[in-house]
Amino acid sequence: MTKLLSIRLVAILVGLGFALVALYSFVIGAYAAMTEEPAGHLPYEEPKDLAWSFDGPFGKWDVQQLQRGFKVYNEVCSACHSLKFVAFRDLEQIGYDEGQVKAFAASKQVPGIDPNTGEATTRPGLPTDYFPSPYPTAVAAAAANNNAIPPDLSLITTARADGTNYVASLLMGYQEPSEELLEHHPEAAPGPGLHHNPYFPNLNLAMAPPLTTAGQVTFDDGTEATIEQMSTDVAAFLTWTAEPTMVKRKQTGWPVLIFLLFATVLAYLSKKQIWAAAKRKDD
User: What is the pTM of this model?
Assistant: First the structure.
């Protein structure tokens, strides 16, 4: 009996020892993770906190801004980036009429099949078609962009943290690395074919500055096309492509909340009425 108790006591002590070692390792690891800078970490900047018409519970799309942003995408960004989840007819949601959509779709070549030979070919787009990719294959895209495949922009603002601000800040953020940065992080110097941008997590990216001069795009509404204006406009447009129903969802939410509030008050009054007689009997 004494031997059995000794064995149990040793087993308990060994178990406690393992538990203490595991706890110590966890505490040390957690402290190191919170206090030590990860290897290879570069001090990138958080996106600028910009104001947007669609922010907040009462936000609305600025249709003119969306049209300006579409023009920036079409004349600048579409040379490298696809918009594969957006159909030409979706442009009617941002103020273009049916004729304008048809004309724009017809100006684009989309993949098709030759009805006579069955071979792959291209044809003028229809409103029901989706925006075509600027490259036939991923290999061609990589070859044209320093081995980096340009991402599709349809959902880019939801695929990145603080996406709208990130896109706008990135487009405005191209610059030369500071001497102070290079002194503390010499690895931050852009290599061949790379461009420095403090808003990109690696600080250097293969995409060259797409917006380089004021007036690069001429806006139909007469707005001055500064780099900041073009950057914010295309960021707003890409927010719409990622969440086209965002404003409608907000507008629908308010009647639902009002109905739920009314239903709650009605349920409370009904409960008071139903249980009033039972409470009088108890009294």
Answer: 0.78
CA dihedral 234, 236, 241, 243 (to 10 degrees): 160
Rounded to whole angstroms, the Cα distance separating 85 from 77 reads 16
Q: Which residues pair with 122 in a beta bridge?
A: 111
List of residues 6+ apart from 216 with CB closer than 8 A? 75, 76, 225, 227, 230
> Tokens in use for 116?
């006579």
Other residues' Cβ atoms within 10 Å of the Cβ of residue 91: 20
Q: Residue 129, exposed/middle/buried by CB under 10 A (0-12, 13-18, 19+)?
A: middle
How far are the Cα atoms of 81, 132, 137, 159, 279 from residue 152, in angstroms, in the given order?
Answer: 6, 11, 13, 11, 65
Name the residue among 266, 244, 250 with its Cα closest to residue 63.
244
In order of 57, 61, 160, 243, 251, the CA distances from 248 in angstroms are 11, 10, 22, 10, 5
Chain centroid to Cα 178, Å, comes to 28
pLDDT along the chain (283 residues), means of 10: 61 67 68 50 87 92 97 96 96 96 95 82 92 92 88 95 96 93 88 92 92 95 96 98 91 81 82 70 57
Q: Which two tokens stand for residue 222?
A: 């007469």
